[in-house]
Amino acid sequence: MWDQLVQWDRDIFSFINSLWIGKFTEFWLFVTQIEHWIPLYLFFFYLLYRAMSWRKALASIGMVLTTAVFTLWLTNFVKNSVARLRPNNEPVLMDGINILQMPENFSFWSGHSAVSFAATTIVVLLLQHYKPSKWYFLFYLWPITFAFSRIFVGVHFPADVTVGMIIGLIAGCVFYKMTLFLFDILKNTRER
Where does the Phosphatidic acid phosphatase type 2/haloperoxidase domain lie (predicted)? Predict the structure, then answer.
């Protein structure tokens, strides 16, 4: 059964990856680079600052960064424990796929997916809590595009990306609850 799931993951990867061979290469290389998303993070921080008091905004920004660092640490721990080869390093795949990057570390689960979904989730939930808007959910276009870019550049399987998304959603929700708990503690200590 496990071997069948792994084969399906490879087949789905090969199909998705082959859709973009020779097309939009510059776009996917741009999208997959973390540093190109820094302006979006700064925009998130600005929105948090506008939605709440400056103390809560600073605490929220700190929690967003903590969420990202924790999710990255957990991802690297699991990657090294599972030790799944990336598609670009798998001998049975590497000659027939589109490879635009050549990382040498392990694949499962996608750190890009996990961290971007975790950060987006905590930001969306905090903004929704303090200044509700249905438009915040459009922010998920970023991590979805970011996560799937990893398949298109040849460095992650669909299962890596999907599990990374789920882990990121869970981490974002947990750290959102922790942030609200922190705000309650800060409020109670100020009232004493």
Answer: 61-176
Confidence at residue 97, expressed as pLDDT on a 0 to 100 scale: 76
Please, what's the b/e burial string for 48-84 (b: 16 or more CB within 10 A of its CB; e: otherwise)?
A: beebbeeebbebbbebbeebbeebeebbeebbeeeeb
> For 97, phi and psi rounded to 5 degrees?
-125, 165
Residues of the chain with confidence (pLDDT) below 70: 20-22, 188-192
Would you list the domain boundaries of the chain?
A: 38-191
- Residue 148 CA to residue 42 CA, distance in Å, equals 22
Cα–Cα dist 124/55, whole Å: 18
DSSP character for 93? T
Instruction: Give the C-alpha separation, 167 to 119, whole Å.
Output: 11
Q: What is the pLDDT of residue 5?
A: 86
